[in-house]
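Reposting from the mailing list since nobody answered there.

I have sequence plus structure tokens for a pair of proteins and want to know whether others read the tokens the same way I do. The first protein:
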Amino acid sequence: MGKEQIINDIQNGKTALGIEFGSTRIKAVLVGSDNTPIASGAHDWENQYENHIWTYSLDAIWKGLQDCYQNMAKDVKNQYGIALETIGAVGFSAMMHGYMAFDKAGELLVPFRTWRNTITEEASKKLTEVFQYNIPQRWSIAHLYQAILNKEEHVSSVTYFTTLAGYVHWKLTGQQVLGVGEASGMFPIDIETGEFDKKMMGQFNELIASEKFSWKLEDIIPKVLTAGENAGALTGEGAKLLDVTGTLKPGIPVCPPEGDAGTGMVATKSVAQRTGNVSAGTSVFAMAVLEKNLAKVHPEIDMVTTPDGSLVAMVHCNNCTSDLNAWVNIFKEFAESFGIEVDMTKLFSVLYNKALEGDADCGGLLAYNYFSGEHITGFEEGRPLFVRTPDSKFSLANFMRVNLFTSLGALKTGLDILLKEEGVKLDELMGHGGLFKTKGVGQKVMAAAVNTPVSVMETAGEGGAWGIALLASYMQNKGEGESLSKYLEEKVFAGQESVTIQPDARDVEGFDAFIKRYSEGLPIERAAVDFLK
């Protein structure tokens, strides 16, 4: 799209803006009428650990949002020479889960408790048992129930609780709503109705009846909306909160607020059934869009939804590339000891590609990349390990291969539950994140781990802010009855190039042999955690 057309889009409000609150960065992406990014802005921030709680202050939330927006507006001014006065539609998203509770005056009762807090184990286990539905510690309902179990005074004063995305949306529009994908990280969703599960809400109310609170759960939880529905508009106060210069006009439509898992699905075109995506960086998670519910409850699997309400199984692991990166840095240090200046992109490429020359099963080598605990394999702490027997085939190729394989070891453990125990079918998995930066290698390893074609698109790096901008655009521009999947296929990703790698039978067999060794060797990791202090 040419500069003249972009200017016309901006002046006539044929744009959509997405703003996402990530763990370390708030990012804004403005797209034009063809859904491609035309301007962006960002603000870096960090959580604080206060009184044993990981949190962000309200001041940090609003200053971060305003700075991020101003940086995007400046980008518009610098590139196109015009002020940003109106936008076709806006959307807000944020890291999923967590707990923000408010009283009747709209005041925050306790500091925001983020997804990172693992302080709700008792509540998580009890709710999972009562609902017969996995309730992870990160979920908002686990935080609420844990506060009740802890006899926290604030609970009796709660009139509304929500997530970060829901809070920002509420303050800018006056609407207490959530997109269904984000809502599914608060409380289980009934896939048939697209709303919170009424049976489980009744069970929760019964569970806390003896507390004699003045509220029931349905009184204090947001209304659930599906992608494409209107979720209100920027109020006069909201417009000034977003744009402190007062340039932005109120009345701009806002789409349902979503979580970063949902926007990641949109940004990778992974919302249709039998598709999925995997994000592999410091941590790794995979999402599989299901055709039907799972037969059993699995503590390793989180059940959430796409932004348009399809059931999704999510496998989330704490560890992925940190140990791999540490080993690459050792090779960098080695090279620099010889006076060789190292290009890190080239070093990663050389070492990753070397892994493709290794034995299918890594020559009998074993590694664990556990910088931190890993709930899927039952570890509360981690110890990075590399292990071999005297007769293992210890070569550079096998060493790099085993470290690539183990970066997906915990993920495969969870995905095997889906693909092998539950018989979930996936036609394609979209990959994004640091593991896939070296062309072809991460994809080939991932395809071997899941025995499924893995694709990487050029736009995968645009991230969740682009994903929520697309949801805002979908709300404004969808045709009559047009599904989100069809909209993405035809109006966003049509003609976009992607590279697909099919699983190689040799690699699949080799990964299966590795994961058997990985599973059998877990007592070694347990001993390291117990004795290596």
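The second protein, same order (residues first, tokens after):
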Amino acid sequence: MRKLYALAAAALVFVSQWASAQADLSYYLPKEVTYNKEIPTPKDILGYNVGEWHVSHDQLAMYVRQMAQLSDRITIEEYARTHENRPLYLLTITSPENHKNIQGIKEQHRKLTNPKASGNLDIKNMPGVVWMGYSVHGNEPSGSNASLLAVYHLAAAQGPEIEKLLRETVILLDPSINPDGLNRFASWVNTHRSKNLVTDPNSEEFAEAWPRGRTNHYWFDLNRDWLPLQHPESRGRLAKFHEWKPNVLTDHHEMGTNSTFFFQPGIPSRNHPLTPAKNYELTKKIAGFHAKALDKIGSFYYTEESFDDFYYGKGSTYPDVNGAIGILFEQASSRGHAQESVNGVLSFPFTIRNQFTTTLSTLEAVQNMREELLAHQRDFYSEATKEAGKASVSAYVFSSEKDPARAFHLAEIIHQHQIDIYRPKEKFTVNNVTYTPENSYIVPTNQPQYKLIEGMFERRTSFQDSLFYDVSAWTLPLAFNLEHANLTSRQFKDKMLGQKIDSVDFPKGQVIGGNSAYAYAFEWHGYYAPRALNTLFGQGLQARVATDKFTSAEGKQFDYGTILIPVSGQPLSLERIQALMAQVAQDNGLTVYAMSTGFTGGINLGSPGIYNINQPKVAMLIGDGVNSNDAGEAWHLLDHRFNINTSLINAELVNRTDLSRYNVMVMADGSYGSISDFGKTRLRNWVQQGGTLIAMGNASRWLADNKIGTFSFKQSEENGTSRLPYAQMSNTMGAQVIGGAIFETDLDLTHPLGYGYYSNKLPVFRDNRLFMETSKSPYANPVVYTAKPLLSGYISKPNLKQLSNSAAISVSAIGGGKVIAMTDNPNFRAFWYGTNKLFLNSIFFGQIISGGSARAEEDAH
């Protein structure tokens, strides 16, 4: 046994040394191709062979910029900056002759998406356009490192074959879709790299620190942001995508170390129904080129398993609803420089070689299938327009009369997707909702982007398959909690369309009533009302919140949650307060009212029902065990969107950090095992002394288990069948997963957590099986799922039964403080504008929730 172990160890050392020694160009590049020696290799500029070290983003940027200077085949442009101010580059690679007419080629190619012009195009003489995208997940680095080889090969390769490829193809190459994450990961693995490569999976090199490099600066998965467009990386990239409308887009990823290599098509039954069958056929035909190339170098692979093409917000699926072919590549990850796996030692150079090989096979496929791909794009838009003409829905209308900012943000997203959007010409009423030109938007479906429009607005509750790689619903009007309607051909006529929107403008704020020497008031309906209040707090102003309705002397009725800013007793002058109120109204799209008297109808402005509120001092617990996506979404909302200072505190520090400087603490979904028993006591004491503790997802269960707040949860109903086929286990268990769907809740508009809402029916997003019992206190559940809650997406019947009438939010009192437990994430992927207010209300108004309206801890013992 010892002898066998020694032989195995020696073999591992040999493989490790081989992997390092073989990481030169001869390992990667095609043997039959010659290269221009005047063009520098990556090693000439970086000082090391590709795969010897993990390339950092600044090194990668340096190489591609220099190649663009040296090669007449390459031009480069910066299309965006990340949150950390790193540049994102797009390289255009084609023949020098094509570069001379690149604008003409682009304009002609875009005509393929215009059915009125595409029929006259000569596709036989048009180049194909392919977009190569690498490493949207920063800790899946083989893609971005392979892009070094792709750029070198396309710049330096010589001979008639490469010249023909460049004449017939325009290659758009994005070497790093996620620079911030790539840099974070490269720094980690390079820091922990040994001179003699260590392949032991337990080594620190493979134990990347939280939050890891998969995500961007705010810990978002950018591969889910193609549709919501909440980040600069995505917005910049999409603008270039639509500027070109590529025929094929590749998306290079990594998966588990013990896997092999995957390329699409994925599981056929999990394609989105709006994607035409031709897309699948072409994807499968392209797959033949990948298989041939990988066979040639001896790499194992698989296809039509594991992955799907359903959610249109992913890089490999978004192209499918835009007349292109999206191709997902998933390479087994070395997660460092070389790591043991069930298939032997997996070296970083090996992972790079597979990504580079399929880069070349993609180019070969695009060149060979050029006319077929161009025809598919032309036919896609032509057929979409025909389908639109027969569709039951002729237009979608949406509005938010009391909060124009939410409607603005949805219109902004739609406009960025190259969809025509209009204001109504005149006001009209549908389903008892009146839509006005000032606050509403209409999206007619009879336009080339018909399929994408349907993908944004549709509600779907029946599916061919019950398993989803990602979410099963993302209906945007529901995500934004907007008044909206589907207009049939009887309800909609072209004459209803007013001005076509060329640019979406942020709502204008105003102060009504002139200047006041008494007080100012603004309702909490506005999406950015919390930002306005936080700005006022930052200037040292005192503020109050109304817990009941009242009517001004001028007849304006103010809703629950109205903010009152007294003029007297403030640290600023009368004139400064006047100017400040005008500024916050303008910056936040709010209507602020100058109050002339406190003698109001209903409660008066000096009423005990108008509470003083304190500025939130927010801390959020982070670190191992915490769901970094959910934490990042909360951080992004508070910091980036609302300018609320948020201290990010490692959960382990609760055991010894002074918590008294905070009055609000956020716990995102996750487990908090690093908090000791002493830390739990300190956390409980902090709440008792008046703190507001907000927990989402499984953090709520953790608090309940540790008696920090009193919440109870239903037990999941498991399949009672005693015996099932083993081969069905994965599908049977997977069907019980709630991957992401939209449900209806009932909201108490009089509760502080309901302030600013004006409809008691609120759509929420859910992606877990955490079912919370309603409280015995009749006031402790401000948000409850309705009896028939499913609005859009997939949920199994047992889970739907559990969810019906369960609590979405429960409030528990401990001493002078509150624990607010949310089963779901109200900030999901930054585009769930409709439920953000629940989270922000918890932060601003948790302090005023009456102990009698919460489930008191003492009642449970």
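Reply #1 (J.P.):
I read it the same way you do. The CA atoms of residues 18 and 347 lie 9 Å apart.
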